[in-house]
Specification:
The complex is a heterodimer of chains A (137) and B (933). Chain A is 86% helix and 0% strand. Chain A is mostly helical. Chain A has one domain. In chain A, 26% of the residues are buried. The mean pLDDT of chain A is 91. Chain B folds into five domains: 182 residues, no CATH class; 158 residues, beta-sandwich domain of Sec23/24 (Immunoglobulin-like); 230 residues, Rossmann fold (3-Layer(aba) Sandwich), CATH 3.40.50; 118 residues, Four Helix Bundle (Hemerythrin (Met), subunit A); 127 residues, Severin. In chain B, strands 6, 8, 14, 23, 25, 26, 28 and 29 form an eight-stranded mixed β-sheet that branches. The chains are: A mainly alpha (137), B alpha+beta (933). The interface between A and B is medium-sized, with 12 and 15 residues. Chain A: This is Cornichon.
């Protein structure tokens, strides 16, 4: 099955990209704590990445849906729901006025997402290899 | 023997002489030598000779000692048993019981009489106990010099450290709470002897500038967690000075002595080492060099006395900042008035009152070096710029109706120098309200007006003062009437208290960056979304004022607005300010409440610091504290309205303790209530009002439960009493006041504008105003003692306040209930006609009208006394507020009556709010219940 091999290759790359975004977020947050960056610049910088990150993840999930990869789809659905809910409540953007109050929560969220992307990275990798093997047979 | 060189005045050295076996003292400047230790220059008494032990590093006089034992406020507090001065009277032996000489003390006034109960036995360090009067020291002043030696040695006695706090437990159930005790000072700060280089009482900042929720800091986080008390600082660094308040001392040195590691400013709690050549920081213990000119008086160009320096004797000082503290030359005050010229603004008389007040306040605007700049922009459906060329008396009106892309119609003459264009400005302000008298435009382009004002001054910084009487409807920042009465009282209500439009937050951040502060004066009769509009003052360190249903035709409304507006204009503002709070090692500022923008983990940025605004900062104990005392230092770097860059440094030190009873005995209920109010407001916005209320009552239960389990004998069992420390006995009442407050209480009736405004006040009012706001003052006027309302030693004598319960309302009485923002004159239904005649000049009770009123000043003594009490109420507190006076008849308009009665917080309120006894019972049940589990 040629499609799933390519799909999971894309998944691996996407997960790696998302992984790096999260690492970037976490680094920025610790920069803020050490006073290397002021909250206004931080929020301006991070906010440009928030929607693309969510959109990219949603797109990946959509690909899984279209190609019928149910396990991968269900793995990703909770995060999509979480993101959608955040956008609906209009608190997906980082607010410079509140950032110090909410910093702990943001960091925790980023770490959890980091872990999630890490797990999905290896899962996609595994699925890609499986798909490639089955293809070569 | 201690090295005597450590106490020498600068320039002197001590040399050990082998032949005589004693020190020879040499003045390096003059070459003069002598056997006697040289006196420190300017010392009021001879310095104590080198004495045995390790505690002679700085001069200590009787005054210093006594102060160390009494803290700052020995007057109203019960005298601690075992007074040192009392001992000294006894003669040469140090610890003679002096009980025979001194009658047992009776604390003066009404403060805390029960606290005397502890009696002897508390003060065990010296082994002897002698009740003595706190004033014993003052009586002995002439002997101070002679006593010096004794005292300096006393300080060396091992174990003779700071006195214990005496904990007095009271039972809240059935306890009578005298409202007068609320206005007293917090428990004294009892620093260990020798903590401070100064003997002045001012060495610790006055509690009106900075106060801590506990005056003895727990040494470990687990002890703090055990005590359940919130740990925080309440700051009002820029405080107005009333008559009789000491002015803040100014230090004009070129070099400001600061710690090179933690950047702490030199303060009375540092220690001088190496013969005074270096000082050791009280926060991080790094030793720093004393600046060269530290002992030089630059005003007279003579050697000065280090020990008389303001920064070593005062907890609150202003340093004049040299150029390295400036990013740019100090800015001049800039005021941009954004006035609503739409039909609403004109019809309510807001525009006329505002322009008249500005006109009258032109002389009061801070303008010492004629640099102050002013601009006026009107807005309705378009923006109206007024261009006043300097020197001319004429002004031109430029209208910009493009609201999408705001531009300034002219590069110059919009922002004008107050002095140069005074004539033109006066004509303009005189005509302004007439120019729009026939306007029919309905609509408000507040957002574009803000942007225009910001464009005008973004390069300079300054103040945008907005007067608007409608909801903004046009351009950016347009808001919808989102209020839905169905939501009131539900869990969704807090969404009405959050900002509706992101513009007001992003714009606030831009303003903060460009050092622009926004003041909001809101006047709408309909919904105006105070919650969203007050975001701008909140993040740019401004003020919000709200005048619901303003109508200048009522003189009371006009007077209130004109007074408050005028006070804000006249107040000396601090510009371009940053605030940083430093604390001893182990303590960290964890969260901040108030009107400012948090720019980094511990730096608050305020484009302007308004007078008498309070900030609350929560503190965390990160590591165990080993030092005997800790220091908090607040530094406000600012530009004064006189164009001088200054740093206001507020330092206060608190002893540490590992004993939970001391933590309780030193708790400051007023500071705790202030911090809880700030936290409750934050909670209600970020989560739900209900959560805020729950958190408050849970906190109370936690405190009471721990107190019961650790401090009383009943321990874990149920008990009929509800115990708390005497110094915290008002805390449950204040908490109840907060729970019943307009900003927090459960209700389906409160419009969200009123709630949002009340919350804005709860987070900005300094304790002096906040406490009456939570716990109003209630006076009986018809039966006040004859001296009340007349001029006494401290101005007008006020009647004794009554407990806040309607049981005290008599049917024939006249009462005053006030919370600092409003006043109610309650008239009983059986008030005698003579009383009505005397006060209101009306023949009978029936003719009296409920509502806002101004009392006539009549030709009879009672009327004059009542007026004096009311005027004193308006003046006695700091802050710009001018409370309205409402006349309430006992059988008059129901809404007004209920409003007035809602101030009596000990009563059962409307909508099932508990009375104070009920609240205590529910607390008791939960306290007893939780100890079983």
């Amino acid at each position: 099955m040629l499609g799933s091999g390519w799909l999971f290759l894309f998944g691996v790359l996407a997960a790696a990209g998302l992984l790096f975004t999260m690492v970037f977020f976490i680094i920025m947050f610790s920069d803020l704590e050490c006073d290397y960056i002021n909250p206004i610049d931080l929020c301006n910088k991070l906010n440009t990445f928030v929607l693309p990150e969510m959109g990219f993840h949603a797109f990946l999930t959509l690909c899984f849906l279209l190609s019928g990869q149910w396990t991968a789809l269900f793995l990703n659905l909770p995060l999509v729901a979480f993101n959608v809910q955040k956008i609906m409540n209009k608190n997906h953007m980082y607010d410079a006025t509140e950032i110090f109050r909410t910093l702990g929560g943001h960091k925790k969220e980023c770490f959890i997402k980091l872990g999630f992307y890490l797990v999905s990275f290896f899962y996609y990798l595994y699925r890609m290899i499986v798909a490639l093997i089955s293809e070569s047979e | 023997m201690e090295d005597p060189s450590q106490q020498l005045p600068p320039g002197w050295i001590a040399q050990w002489d082998e032949t005589h076996q004693r020190h020879l003292f040499i003045d390096q400047n003059t070459g003069q030598s002598q056997w006697e230790p040289p006196a420190l220059p300017g010392a009021g008494a001879p310095a104590p000779g080198p004495a045995a032990g390790g505690h002679t590093k700085r001069r200590q006089y009787a005054a210093g000692q006594t102060q160390a034992y009494y803290g700052e406020s020995g007057v109203v507090h019960p005298p601690a048993p075992g007074d040192m001065a009392g001992n000294a009277v006894g003669g040469s032996s140090f610890f003679t019981p002096a009980g025979g000489d001194q009658p047992p003390a009776q604390p003066s006034g009404f403060y805390n009489p029960t606290a005397m109960g502890q009696g002897p036995g508390v003060f065990s360090a010296g082994g002897f106990v002698a009740p003595a009067q706190p004033s014993a020291y003052q009586q002995q002043q002439p002997q101070v010099g002679a006593l010096t030696d004794q005292f300096s040695q006393m300080g060396l006695q091992p174990g003779y450290g700071q006195k214990q706090f005496a904990l007095h437990t009271v039972n809240l159930v059935g306890a009578f709470l005298d409202p007068r005790e609320l206005v007293g000072p917090p428990p004294e700060i009892r620093l260990p002897p020798g903590a401070c280089v100064s003997q002045e009482v001012t060495a610790n900042a006055d509690y009106t500038y900075q106060r801590c929720t506990m005056n003895a800091i727990p040494t470990t986080n687990s002890l703090l967690g055990k005590a359940k008390l919130p740990f925080g600082l309440i700051l009002t660094p820029h405080r107005s000075l009333k008559e009789g308040d000491a002015a803040v001392q100014v230090v004009t040195d070129q070099v400001i002595a600061r710690c090179r590691r933690c950047r702490t400013y030199i303060n009375p709690y540092v220690t001088f080492i190496d013969g005074g050549a270096r000082w050791k920081c009280c926060m991080c213990n790094v030793s720093n060099e004393v600046p060269q000119m530290f002992d030089w008086d630059q005003a007279t160009n003579t050697p000065g006395d280090r020990w008389k320096r303001a920064e070593l004797n005062h907890g609150v000082v202003d340093f004049v900042a040299p150029t390295e503290y400036m990013v740019r030359p100090p800015q001049a005050p800039v005021y941009v008035f954004l006035l609503d010229v739409s039909q609403h603004g004109v019809a309510s008389g807001m525009l006329a009152t505002a322009t008249r007040t500005i006109l009258e306040s032109l002389d009061r605007l801070p303008n010492t070096d004629n640099r102050t700049k002013v601009a006026i922009i009107g807005f309705d459906t378009a923006l109206h710029f007024f261009c006043v060329p300097s020197g001319s008396t004429e002004s031109t009106l430029l209208v910009v109706s493009d609201l999408d892309d705001v531009f300034l119609p002219k590069p110059t003459d919009l922002l004008i120098n107050l002095t140069e264009a005074r004539a033109g400005l006066e004509t303009l302000l005189g005509r302004l309200s007439d120019m729009f008298v026939d306007t029919h435009s309905v609509g408000s382009a507040l957002g574009p007006a803000l942007q225009a004002g910001f464009k005008l001054i973004s390069s300079l910084g300054g103040k945008l003062i907005v007067c608007t009487s409608t909801l903004p409807t046009l351009g950016t920042g347009a808001l919808k009437a989102r209020e839905d009465p169905k939501v009131f009282g539900t869990s969704k209500e807090s969404s009405l208290l959050q900002a509706a439009d992101a513009f007001y937050k992003t714009f606030a951040i831009e303003c903060s960056r460009s050092q622009v502060s926004v003041d909001m004066f809101l006047f709408s009769a309909q919904y105006q979304d105070v919650a969203t509009l007050s975001c701008l003052p909140h993040y740019t360190a401004g003020n919000t004022f709200f005048y619901p249903a303003f109508n200048a035709a009522r003189s009371e409304d006009a007077i209130k607005f004109a007074h408050e507006f005028g006070e804000i204009l006249a107040s000396p503002i601090c510009l371009e300010a940053v605030i940083r709070v430093r604390a001893s090692r182990g303590l960290r500022m964890s969260s901040f409440h108030g009107n400012f923008f948090v720019r980094s983990t511990d730096l608050l940025s305020l484009p302007a610091v308004p007078l008498d605004q309070s900030y609350a900062i929560e503190v965390q104990i990160e590591e165990n504290i080993t030092s005997p005392f800790v220091v908090f230092q607040t530094a406000v770097l600012h530009t004064t309205s006189d164009g001088e860059r200054r740093i206001r440094v507020v330092t206060s030190a608190y002893p540490t303790t590992s004993n939970i009873s001391e933590v309780y005995a030193s708790a400051d209920q007023v500071a705790i209530a202030t911090l809880l109010a700030n936290k409750a407001v934050e909670r209600s916005i970020s989560s739900k009002l209900e959560d805020a209320r729950d958190a408050l009552s849970n906190k109370m239960v936690d405190i009471l439960t721990t107190y019961k389990n650790t401090m009383t004998s009943s321990g874990g069992g149920a008990s009929a009493a509800l115990s708390i420390a005497d110094n915290m006995k008002f805390l449950p009442l204040l908490t109840l006041g907060l729970l019943k407050h307009v900003g927090i209480r459960q209700s389906t009736q409160i419009p969200s504008d009123l709630r949002a405004y009340a919350q804005a006040l709860l987070t900005t009012l300094p304790s002096q105003l906040l406490i009456p706001y939570l716990h109003p003052t209630f006076y009986g006027l018809h039966n006040m003692p004859p001296e009340c309302g007349t001029i006494g030693e401290q101005g007008v004598i006020m009647p004794p306040p009554l407990p806040l319960t309607s049981e005290r309302l008599e049917r024939h009485g006249l009462y005053l209930i006030e919370d600092g923002q409003t006043m109610f004159l309650w008239v009983g239904r059986d008030a005698v006609p003579q009383l009505i005649m005397d006060v209101f000049e009306l023949p009978a009770y029936e003719q009296l009208r409920t509502g806002k009123a101004t009392l006539p000043l009549l030709e009879n003594v009672f009327s004059q006394r009542v007026n004096a009490v009311i005027n004193k109420t308006r003046e006695m507190r700091r802050g710009p507020y001018w409370p309205h006076l409402y006349i309430v008849k006992e059988d008059g308009e129901a809404a007004m009556r209920l409003w007035a009665l809602s101030m009596l917080v000990q009563d059962r309120g409307a909508e099932n709010l508990p009375s104070y006894p009920q609240f205590l019972t529910s607390l008791k049940e939960r306290v007893n219940g939780s100890s079983y589990t």
